[in-house]
Amino acid sequence: MSAELISANHAAALATILAARANRTARGFGSGVYPITPQTESIERICEETFEKGHVVRVESEHSAMAVCMGFSLGGLRAFTASSSNGLAYMAENVFAAAFYRLPIVMMAVNRTLGPPWNIWVDHGDTLALRDAGWIQLYCEDNQEVADSVLAAFRIAEDRRVLLPAMVCQDAFILSHTMMMTDLPPQAEVDAFLPPLDLPHRVTARPLVVGGLDPPRETEVHRRQHQEAMNAVFEVHEEVRGEFKRVFGRELPPAIVPYRLDDAETIFVSMGTTAATVRQVVDAARARGEKVGSLRIRMFRPFPEALLRAAFAGRKRIAVLDRDLSPGLGGIVFSEVRGLADPGALVQNYMIGLGGGDVRAEHIERILADVRARERAGAPEFVEVGG
Amino acid sequence: MKTLQTFEPEPALGGLAHTPADRPEPILRAGNTNCGGCGMSIGWQLLSRAVADRPVQLVIPASCSIVTAGTYPFSAYGAPIVASTFASAAAVASGLAHAARLNGEKTRVLCWAGDGGTYDIGFATISAAAERNEDILFICYDNEIYGNTGGQRSSATPQNAWTTTTPGGKDVPKKDLLGIMAAHRIPYTASVSMAHLDDAHRKLEHALATPGFRFLHLLAPCPTGWKSEPAESVSLVRMAVDSGLYAVYEVFDGNRVRINIDPTMSDSALERYIASQGRFRKGHADLKALRGEIDASWRELRARAGWASEEATR
Question: CB contact, 8 Å: B75 with chain A?
Answer without folding.
Answer: yes
